[in-house]
């Protein structure tokens, strides 16, 4: 039986067993595993799997609460919020403006990337936090007009995507991969939902620069980021004390060798680029 539930023309399936869904009154029911997803609002689709399925080893819930609190404390100060978001998004604007077709933003929050996308691109946000649908964010719409409207939002997890195979032209993960509980599973799911030749663009946080990065000074200097000399000192300390690169408490540690394992033979790296403190990759699905 075909799924009769869709968003922006993309079919929605059960995030747990990938079976087809049917709408029954105020819930979506899976034909295969009989799981029910209650729909209590028409502002978003709820495809959140049971929380027991979330990997507790990585303290996901605690890290998530810390991240939500950070935004709650930030948003009353509109000027600082605007300045932080501009600082992060502006350097990537040109990249976003070239994306076409169906785009999935994993951990896409308020859907700020819409500000930089072409008008006819179709963006879907998957995120486990409903805080993003609060009215506070529309206060920023003077600077970011896209925030006048909420994005096409699916409540759910990157580890349990609710789309059929080969649905998207591009998948984004912008400052969200260090927040998930199981990045390896997210990579597997992205591999499944991307079209062959599709792009997976990830901005990672707290990544250790290689010696080649440091020697070539390939990190772009940005306001608020450590200087080249500070980075060199940190690299020397980390190398000689055999410690890990400093990590924000709500982040999961990710290394480039982890990334190479996760991409396996399913993706190739098309671009690796620093934006200030952030290391980005464009992977292409093979
Ligand atoms: C630092 S915020 C970044 C939000 C947004 N990408 C931006 O650029 O403003 C990290 C996001 O990752 C989301 N997130 C956490 N765990 C996730 C998971 N397992 N799957 C998808 N998103 C997740 C959080 O809810 C949050 O929206
Ligand atoms: Zn199911």
Report on the architecture of this protein:
The structure is a single chain. Helices cover 24% and strands 23% of the residues. The protein is an alpha/beta fold. It has two domains: 58-206 and 252-285, Rossmann fold (3-Layer(aba) Sandwich); 211-241, no CATH class. The strands form three sheets. It has an eight-stranded mixed β-sheet with strand order 6-9-8-7-10-11-13-12. It has a three-stranded antiparallel β-sheet with strand order 3-4-5, with no helix packed on it. It starts with 5 loop residues before the first strand and ends with a strand. The chain binds S-adenosylmethionine and zinc ion. Residues 64, 67, 106-109, 112, 126-129, 157-159, 174-176, 179-181 line the site of S-adenosylmethionine.
Strand content: 15-25%
Q: What's the end-to-end separation, in Å?
A: 29 Å
The overall number of domains is 2
Helix content: 10-25%
Q: Globular, elongated, flat, extended or rod-shaped: what is the shape?
A: globular
Class derived from helix and strand content: alpha/beta
Going by CATH, the homologous superfamily of the largest domain would be Vaccinia Virus protein VP39
Q: Could you tell me the radius of gyration in angstroms?
A: 19 Å
CATH architecture of the largest domain: 3-Layer(aba) Sandwich
Bound molecules: S-adenosylmethionine, zinc ion
């Amino acid at each position: 039986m075909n799924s009769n539930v869709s968003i922006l023309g993309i079919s929605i399936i059960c995030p747990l067993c990938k079976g087809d869904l049917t709408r029954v009154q105020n819930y979506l029911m899976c034909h295969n595993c009989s799981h029910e997803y209650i729909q209590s609002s028409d502002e978003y689709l709820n495809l959140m799997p049971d929380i027991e399925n979330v990997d507790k080893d990585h303290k996901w819930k605690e890290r998530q609460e810390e991240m939500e609190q950070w935004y709650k404390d930030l948003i009353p100060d509109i000027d600082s919020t605007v300045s932080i978001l501009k600082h992060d998004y502006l350097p990537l604007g040109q990249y976003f403006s070239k994306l076409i077709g169906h785009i999935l933003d994993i951990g896409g929050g308020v859907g700020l990337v819409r500000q930089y996308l072409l008008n006819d691109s179709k963006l879907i946000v998957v995120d486990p936090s409903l805080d993003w649908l609060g009215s506070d964010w529309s206060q920023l719409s003077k600077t970011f007009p896209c925030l006048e409207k909420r994005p096409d939002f699916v409540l759910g997890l990157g580890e349990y995507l609710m789309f059929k195979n080969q649905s998207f032209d591009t998948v984004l993960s912008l400052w969200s991969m260090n927040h998930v509980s199981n990045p390896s599973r997210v990579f597997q799911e992205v591999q499944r939902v991307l079209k062959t030749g599709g792009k997976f663009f990830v901005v990672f946080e707290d990544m250790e620069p290689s010696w080649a990065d440091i020697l070539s000074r390939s990190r772009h200097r940005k306001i608020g980021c450590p200087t080249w000399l500070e980075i060199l000192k940190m690299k020397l300390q980390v190398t000689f004390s055999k410690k890990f690169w400093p990590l924000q408490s709500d982040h999961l540690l990710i290394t480039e060798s982890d990334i190479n394992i996760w991409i396996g033979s399913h993706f190739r790296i098309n671009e690796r680029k620093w934006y200030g403190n952030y290391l980005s990759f464009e992977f292409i699905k093979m």
